[in-house]
Amino acid sequence: MSARTDTRSTSATRGGVEVRLPWWALALPTLAFVALLLLILNPADAHAASGDPAVGELIERIQQTVLQQSS
Fold first, then answer.
1. Which of the listed residues 1, 49, 53, 63 has the most CB atoms within 10 Å of its CB?
2. What is the pTM (predicted TM-score) of this model?
């Protein structure tokens, strides 16, 4: 006795809409996320306007905490 095979196609279901994104719709947000992540991990490279030094200290403490947990 042979097993029955599924006859459904791989296309969208009836009444559904198939959406195809261009390559840059995924690449640009990923690139932006990675760039911001690198700035957070190395705030010395971020040349921001001078502001409250407490913010810089807070970022450094967060960075130290993240690096300690990852090792």
1. 63
2. 0.38
As a whole number of angstroms, the distance between CA 24 and CA 46 comes to 26
If we measure between CA atoms, which residue out of 40, 35, 67, 36 comes closest to residue 56?
A: 40
In order, the DSSP letters of the chain are -PPPPP---SSPPTT-------THHHHHHHHHHHHHHHHHH-GGG--PPP--HHHHHHHHHHHHHHHHHH-
What is each CA distance from 36 to 4, 7, 39, 61, 63, in whole angstroms?
52, 46, 5, 17, 13
